[in-house]
Amino acid sequence: MTDARRGLTAFVLLGAVALLLLLLGNLNRFAPVQSAVGSVTVPVQQALAPVTDGIRYIFGGLFGGSGTRAENERLRAEVDRLTAENVRLRQLQFENNELRQQLGFTAAQPDLPVVNARVVGRDPASLRQYLVLDKGSRDGVALGMAVVHPGGSFVGQVSRVEESRSEVLLVTDVDSSVNSKVERTRADGIVEGRWQKGGFLEMRYIEQGLTADGRPRVREGDWVVTSGLGGNVPDGLLVGRVESVKQSDTGLEQQAVVLPAVDVRSIETALIVRKP
Fold first, then answer.
1. 4-32 burial string, b = 16+ CB within 10 Å, else e?
2. Residue 117 vs residues 102, 134, 168, 249: alpha-carbon distances, Å
3. 44-49-50 Cα angle (round to 5)
4. 20 to 30 Å CA-CA from 96: which of 32, 132, 209, 253?
5. Residue 44: its pLDDT value, please?
């Protein structure tokens, strides 16, 4: 090994020792070792002082004293508060939008008496498609009444009534069916739930062939609304949109896969349409 390389190696070793001593110096440990080696490493320590000061600053920030910890705790508490406030404001905005929709629906349907209700229960296992509302018989709710989203979309029908609450069978449940029609052509059919069978809605019993003016009775993209037949559900409530059309197995009718106009399981408020 040449003299230059030996000198460089010695300088690096001394630098490492000096750096270690400087970092441990604040802890007042290894004083005897520092005294013995100090006279040798002082020049190197002076040269490395700016580096060790930076390292001490970094470690001080990471593992600082009580002042730094208190400031970090304060900042974390402030972040938590702002997060909770943001969530609360979003919830208020959601409720405000639903109230505006309710006002719009009642203004557009002044002849339909409605009861405002809130959702207070759901089927957690999703084995059945239903909601529990906080209004019941004492509020004028009765079996078979239509339930709509604040925006006017059909949600389902009241299937059970107690004094202060009621259960709504959602339109997507396999036990649900509602008389409906294609909004564009007025072609009649029945919309049935398909949730437990892997789908959403299916409109059945649509007449074959074309309308009198040569248009298909149902096609992809058509809107489906309630027809009012049967008397329980008012005419013209939006049900959903046709996703696809097919022939029945017997070939005597057409069937349409329908996507609901609203996610019926996510609503938080609803309107129960009372019979006039």
1. eeeeeeeeeebbebbbebbeeeeeeeeee
2. 11, 6, 11, 41
3. 135
4. 132
5. 47
